[in-house]
Amino acid sequence: MGILIFIICLAASVIGGICGIGGGVIIKPVLDAMNIMSVSAISFLSGLTVLSMSVISVFRQRKAHLVELRTGSLLAAGAVVGGIVGNALFQAVKAAAGQDDLVGMVQAIVLALVTLMTLIYSVFLRQRIPSYQVKNPVACAAIGGIMGILSSFLGIGGGPINLAVLYFAFSMDTKKAAANSLYIIMFSQIASFLTSCVKGTIPEFPWAYLLLMVPAGVLGGILGSKVNKKISAATTDKLFAGLLCLIIAICIYNACRFAG
Question: What is the mean pLDDT of the chain?
């Protein structure tokens, strides 16, 4: 089982590094489907894996100057606050639900809907509707906050949400959106992790899985950043669209499983 988890996290982190989706959007629903840990433990470990991947990816891509520091930093600042709020929201839903299966069902449904909307926009609407160049600092921080809340609550790091927002609100191309998405993910996951530490809400989890998942995230970040430099934006877009379809299918399966 450990080897399979490592392979899943490695593959997800490589793809996440290429597309800028973080990898958690793959890790979280796939491990939920495998039913090997609690929903809370999977969310926490997925977040740590994404954090390790994003730190490595941002560090390795710094020389490419793809990150728009002003816009990216404002979004990241908002994502930090959003990450804290999203973590608190997750704990509130967990306490109100009283059981992990109900929380998992809510996460799966929300993620499926968000991913479907992202797929529709990315494939069918992106080239047909105008994009914008948001400059207002308050608006940038607010957008980052919304992204941080969703990514932290869902335990996915950022996923397709970031890319769709960066395409639409900031007119970024595929490569630049991927780099800025990872930059935002890094800060939102740091905030979410520190919040869990400070509030003492770290769930119980098998330490062996942590020692497999985080190194997989690091290695995936290294490999993903290398591949990202070699493939075209068009290829990245196709990989992204195919991935969204797979995520939706897994989320639907998870929602049905948790409901049943």
Answer: 88
